[in-house]
Amino acid sequence: MGVKEFFKLNVLKVVMGILLTIITFEIFMWNSNQFSGTYNTITTIILIIFCILIGYLISCVIDYFVKSRFIKILIAVILAIVAIIFGWFSLARNVMVCDPVHDPRVCDPVHQP
Fold first, then answer.
1. Where do the structural domains in the chain lie, given as residue ranges?
2. Cβ–Cβ under 8 Å, residues 25 and 51
3. Which of 62, 74, 102, 112 is surrounded by the fewest CB atoms within 10 Å?
4. Which residues, in sequence order, are CB contacts of 43 under 8 Å at separation 6+?
5. CB atoms within 10 A of CB 25
6. If you ran DSSP here, which 8-state letter would residue 37 be given?
7. Alpha helices in the chain (DSSP H)
8. Distance of CA 68 to CAs 2, 49, 64, 96, 113, Å?
């Protein structure tokens, strides 16, 4: 198998690449809170491109070493479940606040029971 065959597109490879990109991006975004908490636009674009490359490369490796189509589909389903769980945790961790009055952590008469 040559380099062309290793990187040749097929449906499962693209699906696994997309799911791995989502998982990788979520992991990087979770770790961003330890440093600065936010990324600027250029850093985010570079991070997304890096995640896409890593996700597709890992899916190429999985496609190369796993020969059974059933196992590849099973891996894609597991990756989808993991991506959904990461997305759910990401949404659960983020508190959207439009202003300080609507922040439930702020003790004011509006939020008193």
1. 3-111
2. yes
3. 112
4. none
5. 21
6. S
7. 3-6, 11-35, 41-65, 69-93
8. 20, 29, 10, 44, 58
